Structures are given as C-alpha cells and as structure tokens.
Amino acid sequence: MVDRRPRLDQPRDPRRRPGIRFDPDTFGRLTERIARFLGTGRYLLIQSILIIIWVLINALPGLPHFDPYAFLFLTLILSLQAAYSAPLILLAQNRQDDRDRINLEQDRDQTRQSHADLEYLARELASVRLALGEVVTRDFLRTELARAGEAREPKKAKKTQTARTSNEPITTAGPATDPS
Questions:
Q1: Residue 68 within a domain
Q2: Fewest CB atoms less than 10 Å from the CB: which of 22, 57, 84, 89?
Q3: What integer pLDDT is reported at residue 47 of this predicted model?
C-alpha cells in the first residue's frame, strides 16, 4: 500500500493552478506608476476639468443628459475611482517600505563595516605610536647632540663670545655641521 501523506522534508511538486498568472514585480511597478500619477497636480486638474464638463453637460438645458438621475452616475464613477486608487496607493507604499527597509539594512551594514574599519585603524595607529615612542626621532637626536656639545665645550663657547667683543674674527670650535 502506498503512503499518501505528504512528506514534510521534501518540497511539493508544482501544480498547475487555474487562473490568471502575473508577475508581482511588474504589477508592483504598474501600481507605483499609477499611484505616482494620482498624486500629481496634472491628475487633479484633469479630474476637475472632467467633473466640470460632466456637470455642465448634465445641468444645462437643451443638451442631451446622459446621467438622468442627478449625477448618480458621476458619484458611482468617483466612488469606483476612489475604491481602486486607495489599494493601489497602499501597494505602492508597501513596496516603498520594503525598499526603505532594504536600504536601511544596507546602511546599517555599511556603518558596522565602517566602524570596524575605524577601530582597526585606531588600533594600528596606536601600535605605530607605541613603536615610534621607542625610536629616536630626528628632533630628539638634534637636541641631545646640542646638549652634549654644550656640556663638553663650555670653555670654548666663552672664548668665542670674548672674541666677539674684541672685534676679532669668530672662530668655530670644531667642524661645521649641517642641521638637516
């Protein structure tokens, strides 16, 4: 005997469903276009002009009235238009919410990545600073050499200053060094 119970560990076989098939993305794009048009001034102007023409044709005497029941057909048309435009606008808003949610997630991921990169760079910069703290810099070396030179030859510096006061040529103590 064959077991007819559906297996939950396997996907169902696709069955042919009767009815109209449509692409949800295409339908969504169409609803967005309609909703975008319904929110424009052009649509309001066209709708206002059509209603004014409808009222004038059905209110002026001598013209054939195609709406004999005091604008009942106009009310029906406007109700149908409102009944269809509200769900279309809601569908368009739902699609926009989905896009916003995806964009927000992408922004959050990008922010997390940027934060991680920033922390990595901060750690690298701190390690470089620590490494440079143990290395002799050019400025530090110059000041230490100048101190050592002054401590070693204080008498020659005094002789040089006395030579200046006596209008004699200034002699340098030792070879000339280029500071750069």
A1: yes
A2: 22
A3: 93
**CB distance 98 to 35 below 8 Å:** no
Nearest to 117 by CA among 129, 128, 125, 106: 125
Residue 11 lies in a domain: no
The parts of the chain modelled with pLDDT lower than 70 are: 1-6, 16-18, 154-180
Tokens matching residue 45 = 């102007």
In a domain, 180, yes or no: no
Q: What is the pLDDT of residues 89-133, one digit of tens each?
A: 888 888 899 999 999 999 999 999 999 999 999 999 888 888 877
Q: What is the pLDDT of residue 115?
A: 92
Sign, CA torsion 78/81/86/87? positive
Task: Give 108's DSSP letter.
Answer: H
Domain that holds residue 58: 24-133
**Tokens 């109700």 appear where?**
79
The pLDDT of residue 177: 53
* Count, residues in the chain: 180
Distance CA 41, CA 78 (A): 17
Amino acid at 9: D
Establish if 34 belongs to a structural domain: yes
